Amino acid sequence: MDRVQRSWWKTTIGVVLTAIMLFPVYWMVNVSLTSRGSIRDGDLWPKDFTLDHYRVVLGDQLPYLGTSLLVGLGTVALTLVVSAPAGYALSRLLKPGRRVLSFVLIVAQMIPAVVMALGFYQIYSDLGILDTVPGLILADSTIAVPFAVMLFSAFMAGIPRELLQAAQIDGASFWRTFRSVVLPVSRNSAVTVALFAFLWAWSDFLFASTLNRGGGNLRPITMGIYDYIGSQNQEWGPMMATAVLASVPTAILLVVAQRYVAAGVTAGAVKD
Amino acid sequence: MTLVGIQTPAPVPTADAAVAAAAGRPEPQRRRRRVQPTTWAGLAFAAPLLVYLVVFYAYPLYENVSMSLHRYTRATYVTGEAPFVGLDIYREVIGSSQFWTIVWQTTVFVVASLLFQYSFGLGLAVFFRRAFPLSAVLRGLFLVPWLLPIIVSATTWQWMMDADSGIINRFLGVFGIDPVWWLSADHSLTAVIIANIWLGIPFNLVILYSGLQNIPTEMYEAASLDGAGAWRQFWSITFPLLKPVSAITLLLGFVYTLKVVDIIWIMTQGTGKSQTLATWAYAMAFGKGTSATIKYSEASAVGSILLLVALVMGIVYLVVQRRQED
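^ Those are the sequences you sent over. The predicted structure of the assembly is below.
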């Protein structure tokens, strides 16, 4: 009895802590639903309720949302194509190069994005692919590829040896083994990689604001929000409404796909 | 912030299993021949990644370093002229009046962020260690700041910290505290540190929580039988046994905090005291400036300094991790 009561106390404290932590998120939603004249009153809930900001935003920001979707999907595709075979190589095939490559991938994750942006800017302006969607996809994929390779190789190292041997005894080539055994078994890792690659590309501000500044409608939603900041008269209502819309992938990830995220993360911890 | 997901899979020791698997158990006379095809196939499967690393990592980094050794100006993009000047630009950057101020501000930003992120993260991890009703859901919700696009968080904090109508000043007003000009001059560094702590708590919570799960419950049971209270248990069991995980958390936190640009840039554009090395580099190359303020070479020089720190930290990370595996 005492124990049960104590754990409910913990739940109460936990709810309060979570509420404090998530207050900024609530505040964003609150402002996005408050009509223009009352935003500066700072009411704790949308007393002066309106959906106008969303109407404005859906009119203005749809092209940016579309671009973000395109960039996100492109980044996912590129990341998967590069990292899944590499994960197989790193976990199963390459013996001598493994340590070096792992070190390179760890360091790659530590490189400041601003350094990458400077290099990319120079190269892109030479090639004339500044302000293009493919250019942004290439740059955004650098955020996800090292992580993806390491996740894949951690998971693939745990695939039961017998499974791969069975394929080889049947005379399957490496490519056939990879395609028909390794890839299907690694589905959860692939979903996890795809989710994070999409989210990071969707959230990217740094590459978008440097490599895709002048892209007009072919700019992602993060730049759509940034435009509001740059304007003379900051419109907080539409800005917060856009922010809410830009958070939708996060919400989907947490609500719908959390088990994939958990599956991918715990998969790495399970040894064979 | 974005790269934060990495370490969950990274430290997993996979080598033994993979080596055993690659060797396989073929018939004796074919063993010698099979080593080679495996390596060749490995190279073939790794080829896209190797090409990718050269084209999309090595090449941009080379360009960055090269830019810091040549004098680039805005005119360079028209005329293509950029004379080689050796280390002159590094000398100018390090000798400039702002450099050490910005280094100091960067230090304050990194140290304060890490200290609070880690403390809050550890406190929460301990709080969530034993399951209670709804604990999994609440822990999931704590991930939100980590998964939100930074521009979303940054603009929300910007509005909350608005001097006239921001909710924070309103809240402080209840206690009779005068409004604080969060986003300007002296307070801007504090403002971005607060937002960055909020962003970093989930990462610390996740890593430290998974570290806590590896401490056997029996140790706590034994300790409480011996009459050790919660406080004593924390300092005698939790904290010492968590040291390896803490080291990795702080190390990665350091690297990620050092390279933060977006949260600061969006909130304050690096004005006042909130300029760090990373935002300084960003501002010199991409800030809303005229040709007088746009300085690609100087930006690259600062970038290369950051790159050097990242490299050193990568080596430290590897050493720490290897020592923990032994």
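Chain A has a mean pLDDT of 87. Residues 52-93 of chain A form the longest helix (42 residues).

Shout if you want it in another format.
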